[in-house]
Amino acid sequence: MYLCLEKGRKTSDDQCLIHAQWHQLMIKQIQSFLISLLIATFLVVTHTTATNLIWLQSIGMPVDMGIVVSAMATDLVGMNSRGAFPAIGLIFVGLLIAFITARMIAIWSSIKKPTLYAMAGGAALLAIVALMPLAFYNLDLIAGARTLGGKVYLVLAGALAGYYFGSHPKQGDSNDIK
Amino acid sequence: MILNNVRIICAALLFSSGFAASNDDSFEIATLADGLDYPWAVTFISDNEMLVTELSGNLRRVSNGILNPTPIAGVPEVLFAGQGGLSEVTLDPSFADNGLLYLSFSAPAVDQPKLNQLNVIQARLEGNRLVDHKTIFKSDPPRKTAAHYGARLAFLDDGTLLITSGDGFNYREQAQALDNHFGKILRLNTDGSIPQDNPFTKNPDALPEIWSYGHRNLQGLVVADDGTVYEHEHGPQGGDELNRVLPGKNYGWPAITYGVDYSGAMISPFTEQPGMEQPIKYWDPSIAPSGMIMYRGDMFPQWQGNLLISALVPGDVRRLEIQGNKIIMEETLFTQFGRLRNVVAAPDGSLILVTDGEDGKLIRVSAKKSAP
Fold first, then answer.
1. Is B109 within a domain?
2. Separation CA B290–CA B140 (nearest Å)
């Protein structure tokens, strides 16, 4: 039983149920978006950390497990708080635009949701790693994006985040509008 | 009364704290020239004449305080983009006899026009024209970025030329490898040949022109009277460094650093490592050091032997007193002009401050004459 009001008047139980389902779905979609944002941010940040540490170890610097853990923790905080741009903010904007665009494409496209959103997430990260250098004299401000392999990894990170978003909430969940 | 006492106590505390503050009343400030397009370097060719480079590609002459509206002809085409363009101008030690000078600039690579290189040329100044150009250095490999060129030049007492070559931003790890010019100080003869006593001439895996390595973006280079070489370099966020440079040494970038990346990421968790040199000073937060002289003039005798460093952020001059291998005092001067691209000393001992930007100025700072 739902108690709903619409512009000050009572609505029918059916309308009320639909509103409640919408409400729950939006909450779940926001949750999915935030989780996909965290997935992408985590992968982007730790990739930069790993890139730096692997190179440092290759020239004989004493990189041990303690340094790996503290470096990742430092970068997860640092890249989201003390940089010229917070990584999570940049990725948030990229994924948001990409997922809204994917949602519109989904209206007329028959591509499966996980695939479509994976493509959108990959495109978001591709845009970030490709467009940022154009704004900064060809400088790759995300250190992990300086190589082709690094760029590919980051695009895949975006795709994974998108795949997660496209897969949640799962089809058939009780909150999915049929 | 109470207010007066507070003022006296504050003044006494400030004085006793050792904080060195400049007294602007003791300086005479005059604008020598304005409307310069990103001025970068200044050198005096006589007591009353100086040459000024504009990053956009012009070499200008200022005579008796008047900017010649016609740029000096014969300057090569430069790549004016990002931090690139016409950078340093330095006179040959025998300039009075041979008229030779040296320019550093960025330019597209001949065979790969999407890439670019730091170039150093020798040319002769004849009237208002450069002639007899000779390229003595091109950084290798070429880069795609238009940043971190270094591009400072200075002569050692033996007549060889030091060239700073920055890490190109995207290529920072290359500063630790000896097979390229990223993040290096190079030493050449003035004809471009390589001195046989360079530190890596016997290392088959190293370029023989390398003099020191492990640098970032070196924009200050000074040879002191006793032959000591000082360089400063832009760090990332934090970690600008002043180094005392010795041949063959590794200055650590980016394996050790006091700065963090612009993204906020750690570049290295290490600040020291055996076999890598420590700076004699580093700045955190950054000051973006942009040029440096060792003051040898008579106008400010109290500054004799001090390093004067121009800074872009927030824009001032740092006066450093050195004792042995240590900085014993730092004073901040001339904070009123904004971003400063360079500082040089005129033959009369006055200072020329170079402001940054598309309306760059040359500002002369002289000691105020005492009233008769």
1. no
2. 24
Distance from CA of A101 to the nearest CA of B (A): 27
Question: Which residues in B lie closer than 8 A to residue A137 (C-beta atoms)?
Answer: 81-83, 145-147
Query: To probe the interface with B, which of A138, A141, A151, A154 has the most B CB atoms within 10 Å?
Result: A138
Whether B148 is a known active-site residue: answer: yes
Interface ipTM: 0.87
For residue B268, give the chain A residue with the closest CA: A52
pLDDT band at B206 (very low <50, low <70, confident <90, very high): very high
> How many Å apart are CA B284 and CA B291, to the nearest integer?
18
Strand, helix or coil at B202? coil
CA distance B319 to B303: 8
B227: Cα separation from own chain's centroid: 17
Nearest by CB: B263 against A56, A59, A83:
A83
DSSP result, B291-324: EEEE---SSSGGGTT-EEEEETTTTEEEEEEEET
Chain A: residue nearest B269 by CA? A71
Q: Is the peptide bond before B247 cis (omega within 30 degrees of 0)?
A: no
Q: Count how many domains chain B has.
A: 1
Angstrom distance (rounded) from CA A54 to CA A70: 15
The whole-number pLDDT of residue A21 equals 83
- Is the CB of B265 less than 8 angstroms away from the CB of A80? no
Would an 8 Å CB–CB cutoff place A59 in contact with chain B?
A: yes
Q: Is B262 inside any structural domain?
A: no
Predicted model pTM = 0.89
CA–CA gap between residue A141 and residue A143 (Å, rounded): 6
Minimal CA separation from B271 to chain A, in Å: 11
B328 part of a folded domain: yes
| Partner-chain contact A78 B266, CB within 8 Å | yes
Domain containing B27 equals 22-35+289-372
